[in-house]
Target: PI3K/PI4K catalytic domain-containing protein
Amino acid sequence: MVEGMGGPTSEHYQKFTTYCCQAYNWLRKSADLILNLLSLMADSGIEELSANPATTLLKVEEKFRLDLTDEQAEQFFLGLINDSVSALFPLLVDWIHKVATKLK
Model:
């Protein structure tokens, strides 16, 4: 995906990471509403929510990293993106895909 945007130094990739961080901070600002909606869905029959709603809500709240400022949250999220981009498994899948397309 990164290569499709022109690589990690391209303008498109930079915009992508900026938009991702903005979206993350917007979601963090609405964390109370999101958590309330999820708590109302505890009886909805969704397996992940119904099994242990308190634990699930706590996990979701932890993902929002409400203990961080917006700037710190942006740096945290950029770290997640960079970790994901440099992960070994997606690189392996890309390599296999390239090999498979060359064999056709």
Remarks:
- The first helix runs from residue 11 to 29.
- The chain has a mean pLDDT of 90.
- DSSP finds six helices and no strands in the chain.
- Helices lie at 11-29, 31-40, 47-51, 53-64, 70-85, 88-103.
